[in-house]
Amino acid sequence: MEETTTTNDEQLESNEELEHEIEASTNIDSDNKVERIMSLENMINGYLMDLDKLQKDLKEQSAMLKDVFENDAEYAAASEKAREVQKMKKEIKDKLTQDPSVALLDAKVNDLKTEVKDVRQALSDYLHQYYQESGLTQITGSDGEVREIVTTVKLVKKRE
User: Fold this and answer.
1) Dihedrals φ, ψ of 92, to 5°?
2) CB 146 within 8 A of CB 123
């Protein structure tokens, strides 16, 4: 009986040691994950600062370029002619769309554009769900063509 007690004690000690090792391993994995997340957060913040600076520089340089164009007489004359042509084009388009058959065709085109947008959004949602549930980044279409699932992520300011 004493031998059984010793064996049980040894098993308990062994189990406790194993639990401590698992806990230590989990803590190390947890610490590494926290470090990786903090490192990623620092890199993201660095890139955000770089992006802000680049956007500010781009805005300044674009304004300077716009000023150069606006101060050139030849460019100003060409821009005025372009505005006149655009105005004339719009007037002709408006006149053509007054015809009922053209107006109907225009409405159909707009409806189809809306439908394409809605179907693309639904497809995107289903692809995202497919990717999350399967972990796969490719899908074979009914036509047999293999397509890659591409995800895009962007950062936007939180609305309040």
Assistant:
1) -65, -40
2) no
